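Thread: Newbie trying to understand structure tokens

Hi all, I'm a second-year student working on a class project, and my supervisor (Dr. K.) asked me to get a predicted structure for one chain before our next meeting. I've only ever worked with sequences, so writing a 3D structure as a token string is new to me. If someone could post the tokens and maybe explain what I'm looking at, I'd be very grateful. Here's the chain:
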Amino acid sequence: MNGVLIVDKPAGMTSHDVVRRLRRICQTRRVGHSGTLDPMATGLMLVAVGEGTRVVQFLVEGDKTYQATLQFGCETTTQDAEGEITLQCPVDHLEDTAVLQACQEMVGEIQQIPPMYSAIKIKGVALHRLARQGIEIERPARSVHIHRITVNDLALPSLSFEVECSKGTYIRTLCHDLGRKLNTAAHLSSLRRIRSGSFDIKEAVTLDWLEQASSKDISGKFLSLASALRDYPACEVNEEGCKKLRHGIPPLLEHLAVEPEFDEGQKVLLTSKGQALAMAHFAPSRSKEKRGDFELLRVFSGG
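---
Reply by user tm_fold:
Sure, no problem. This is what the structure looks like when written as tokens:
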């Protein structure tokens, strides 16, 4: 079995738990995932199997969409419902109009300080390992982009919303910061990822289905490498270009089926007859150095 599966992760499992289940179901250790979901969270995970693991690094870059619920009134160690309460604040001053306005003020480029309970590494050590030892260290703020926040239900002290955001955004931290913005406290109480790039939760299969399905049915759910990389612009390479790629040599513009319309430095998928050959940066200025018009990032053995 080779390719990428769109899986609907259940609550109570870590992302690595999902990988372990898929290793058993697909009978291979070559399984990886793109985009960690916390144990409390549910929803869309892209799981790569076999040759699919060669594209994992390219599957994490798309924007994400989540359905979330937060509770005003207390902060926790993990910024979600699984942590211990660290602060309680009154909420009787909150008004619907102020909450709605605060949500819209969070839209755009914002700064987030990553939570201590996260997989981010500082000086080679994952923050969550330090957090479990009761150690908190200073973390640099990071820029993330909130494209939109749509409020679905506001019944104070609870707020349910849908958020579309850039990769690397912590929804837990968004909830925490929203509470602070409104002069109270808040934490994330539920989270479901419904979209990653162009991949939608409606395309996903459950682990229970995978456990019961036949190998043939499971194979039919796999995306090829080319399909898994559908969010990138693709260009067809001719036979001469294919020969070069087989030897790890970047193709020239003359080896493309049509003239490209890419920006310098843009990531593109090089294909042949619909199969993924390589991921590359479009770099026509390299031709002056006689090294082809692309900078190869990863060459695949097949699509």
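A couple of things are worth pointing out once you decode it. The radius of gyration is 22 Å. Residues 267 and 281 are 5 Å apart (CA to CA). Feel free to ask follow-ups in this thread.
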